[in-house]
Amino acid sequence: MARTPWYRLDNVGKYYSSQAGRAGQTVFRFAATFVDSISPEALQRALDRSITLFPGFNVKLRSGLFWHYLEPADEVPQVEPERLPICAELHADLNSVLMRVTYFRHRINLEVSHMISDGRGTLEFFKTLLNAYVEERYHATPALPSEPASTPDRRNEDSYTTNYERSKAGATESEKVYHLFGWKNTAEPTFMEYHLSASAVHSAAKNMDVSVTSLVIASVIVAIRATMPPAKRDRAIRMDVPVDLRAIFGSETLRNFFGLAFISYTPGSSDAPLEDIAHLVQTQLKTGTEPEVLKRRMNRMLKIEKNPFISHAPLFLKDGALMFANWMAAQEVTTTVSSIGRITLDPATEPYVSDINVSTSTHGMNFLFCTFKDVLSIVVSSVYVRHDVMRNFCRVFTDLGIDGVISVNKTSGQVDSELTQAPFEQLSRRIAEERRQGSRR
Asked: In 3D, which of 137, 181, 193 has the Cα closest to residue 359?
């Protein structure tokens, strides 16, 4: 009998596998809105074809004596109407596949566990799924290769281990970090989609002589700063910014391969203007994304994994230790801001897609953004009951003269329904109107 193939988890996947079977698993969601209602039959055929090209996404989690590992699923999962909350847990039992494809009206959703891939790796699979769907649904001819350009070994490579250099591991400086506070609803997090004109935001960033990423991060800082109690303003608003490592290290892996740049700002007694903060962020991003800095932090994580006392410990002890390490890492940051960058689709696929956004589950508050066509889509996920930071974040762009479109989920029964939290839309309109009236005076 042929032996069942299996995949080792990469360094990051091992950390996230400690969440298996628990609430709050880390899940990515890529969503694309089409010009027509989704055809479930065409979507299923598209998924079948895409899994053939990317079998590493159709896997289940298994447990060994020392480590978790991945095993191919017996068959391709069935696409279903969207019924679960956004980024719902993917691993519940031994039969759980670590990805799902759902649809709602005009929208296709792909959700993937962080155990098997990061945002960039998932994007490649998502684009292939959209290409295959357009071919099945509209009989268009997007460039869907019979085989991916890279070899299976390169696509499934654990690039962390490949690029590990023990001597270059280093610690990150610590400081007093400000933490968001307030009542939480971890069972039903809030997901706010905020859509802005990409060209308008780019123009605002250009006028400040910074990148769009720097402007968005600075806007998050300003939004959080406005909620800080005076007694806490001596603490740093510190955020981690995931950085794709593939181009830096020449990797073609579809598995997790990212590092972290850290941005820190301490408000003090006075409020620096947005533009000054954006320049500070830009400087820190430039330093924090240098290859040697990223390599030092990456190797620090691997050094922990490869410690002989840890690597030979039983799995249940490892899971407990990794959960504690994740908790400790969360204490070092205020929030996370991630950028997928500009998403481009095949010329044959793009006319059928009107919108793309990306979101992730959260234990606190996360910001994740991407650009498609002339839409900058920012998704804020939050477990906090109060939404002051979200409101302040929207206000920053409205004050720049950039009006946005907002939609917010609220309960599991209202996922992707007609919106749910009118106060957000009313706020956006009111701020815009107040600004226009002020300009007339």
From this structure: 193
User: Whose structure tokens read 């996404």?
Assistant: 57
pTM of the model: 0.88
Q: What residues form DSSP beta bridges with 177?
A: 236
**6-29 exposure pattern, b = at least 16 Cβ within 10 A, e = fewer:** ebebbbbbbbbbbbbeeeebbbbb
Cα angle for residues 352, 52, 41 (degrees, 5° grid): 45
Neighbouring CB atoms inside 10 A of 298's CB total 28
Helices and strands, counts by H and E, the chain: 14, 15
Q: d(Cα 129, Cα 393) in Å, to the nearest integer?
A: 33
Helix (H) or strand (E) holding 191: strand 190-197
From 435, 379, 374, select the one nearest 403 (Cα to Cα).
435
Nearest-angstrom CA–CA distance, 297 and 295: 5
- Strand 375-382 relative to strand 190-197, pairing: antiparallel
- CA proximity to 22, closest of 258, 259, 332, 327: 327
Looking at residue 219, its pLDDT comes to 98
Residue pLDDT, tens place only, 106-165? 999 999 999 999 999 999 999 999 999 999 999 988 766 555 566 767 887 878 878 777
Map 13-79 to HEC letters: HHHHHCCCCCCCCCEEEEEEEECCCCCHHHHHHHHHHHHHHCHHHCEEEEECCCCEEEEECCCCCCC
**Residue 236: strand, helix, or coil:** strand
